[in-house]
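Worked Example 4.2. Consider the chain below.
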Amino acid sequence: MRGGSVAIVGGSIGGCAAAMAAVRAGAERVEVFERSGNRLEEWGMGLAVNQGRYEELAAADYLDDDIPFVRFHRRRWIVRDGDAPAGRELGVQGFDFRGYTWSVLWRELRRRVSGAAVYHPGTAVRAVASRDDAAEVTFQDGSSRSFDLVVGGDGYRSTVRDAVFPDSRPTYARYVAWRGTLPASELPDGLDWDPSDAITVLFPQGHAVLYRIPSADGGTTANWLVYGAPPAETEITPDAPTSLPPGRTTDRLIDYLGDLVERHLPPLWAEIVRRSRDRVYVQPIYDFVSPRYVSGRLALLGDAATVARPHTGAGAVKALQDASALEAALRETATWDEALHRYDRERRDVGLAMVDLGRRLGLAQVEQVPDWSDMDDRALRVWWAELVEKSGGFGGFSLNSQPVAAGSDRG
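Applying the procedure from the previous section yields the following structure tokens:
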């Protein structure tokens, strides 16, 4: 691609990565439209990146060691054991991942496109449409502009996806993730937690995940998620996907979480959740598979294209990989149509496979869990191998792989 104009709808991690892709591929004008103002700066939750996928993305120049991270080496599986403060360890596995703070990673990606792309915060896009050899963006104020390509990086409530596939909607998995953070200085006394260890606490019909992420003072912050079904009557609306940030999460949901961890988590791990009460974010878990990644001059990327449950440990990875694949397609083909056809062909089945893996992980760790009391380290390893290792994909598929998922139309 030489010249041309690209609009990115959505300015979070995926949107900024898409802007990087368009700039590097040679677009003359790249503009990013993000509906929120400065709220992305406040998102302090964590995400994990598989080390192998990091190395591929670093080679593609989307990540590097200048972005603060915490390196993990082990994953400890724990269950409650009476009043034992930290519970009982079922097993330990290798866990070669990095922990990032979402807002820090986002700021670094945004910095990299500053000057090369125009970023418009607080600019809502109402609709998009493909028009033969161009795409039109209509804004909330009624004005509209044309671009050679529009990329939807606007998450699971994507305006661009609604234009391409208006009848496709994310499916609620009937459970949520309560999320929170706690500064390391506020961790309970007596907790022996090496920052290189990621923790999974198992319980009936759910589990908790805890790991460290970088803090602003150069130390670490505890990042945690608790998966489980919410109370029957909640403000979660399956047909209108949304999430509940601190301040919008009701006392009922917070109190229910408190009861859940009191019953199922060892005392010290439960105390981390209790001390985070004023910083709890509720994320309903959804699945979504887009029939295609491209329609005319409209393309989808990241969660706008496919929403895989966070058990896969690969949400940010997949968005960055989508951007890298889009860049290569734009660089190495002769026309817009050829580039978009190649991008769709390369990324569609990856998204399908990630959604399939997320569903299987959710089934095995939340919806139909085994009897953990009967398991030891060996049984845990066999269970995990059968669940994940034969198909791969935990932490994201390699950029060089082309998985074929159930439901794919490719042989």
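The longest strand covers residues 171-183. The chain is about 30% helix and 30% strand. Compare this with Example 4.1 before moving on.
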